[in-house]
């Protein structure tokens, strides 16, 4: 009986360490996020419709041009990357590279490889999950900070933390 318990305990420990997907999502400072698209027309102009559509939102740089930010609009630490992934699911990530941890060093969407890339450290990230694909981010398991995207039945969209 003791031998069976020992074997089960070892097996449990082995599965728990091999089965864990670990990584760090909170490498950048916490910052408020609130981007509101009040109606379907606003979403059709400034939102994303299909893969590989993407758009950058950086309030203090007035990006995207013409988007109306209000007093309670916030775009995270380094800005917000809004994109459609290959399944046409809308995703949002903070643009600050988690390796560099600077609001001014941002990831961008690589139109050729269809992923997110930091030109400073060379890390690449999956556009669907924000998970690291290569570079120092992959070595350290640093993920992009994800944000929630909520669709209102009346046609509005809210991106928030």
Structure description:
The protein has three helices and eleven strands. The chain is α+β, with helices and mostly antiparallel strands and 161 residues long. Helices cover 19% and strands 27% of the residues. It has a single domain, classed as Rieske [2Fe-2S] iron-sulphur domain (Rieske Iron-sulfur Protein), CATH 2.102.10. The strands form two sheets. It has a seven-stranded antiparallel beta sheet with strand order 2-4-5-10-11-1-3. A four-stranded antiparallel beta sheet has the order 6-7-8-9. Strand 10 (146-151) and strand 11 (157-160) form a beta hairpin. The longest helix is centred in the first third of the chain and has 18 residues, at 2-19. The termini are far apart.
Structural class: alpha+beta
Bin the strand percentage: 25-35%
- Which value, in Å, is the CA radius of gyration? 19 Å
Q: Structurally, how many domains make up the residues? A: 1
Return the average pLDDT rounded to an integer.
88
Are there runs of 5+ residues with pLDDT below 50, and where? 5-20
Global shape? globular
Query: What is the spatial order of strands in the main beta sheet?
Result: 2-4-5-10-11-1-3
Task: Offer a concise description of the structure.
The chain is of the alpha+beta class and 161 residues long. It is 19% helix and 27% strand. The strands form two sheets. The chain has a seven-stranded antiparallel β-sheet with strand order 2-4-5-10-11-1-3.
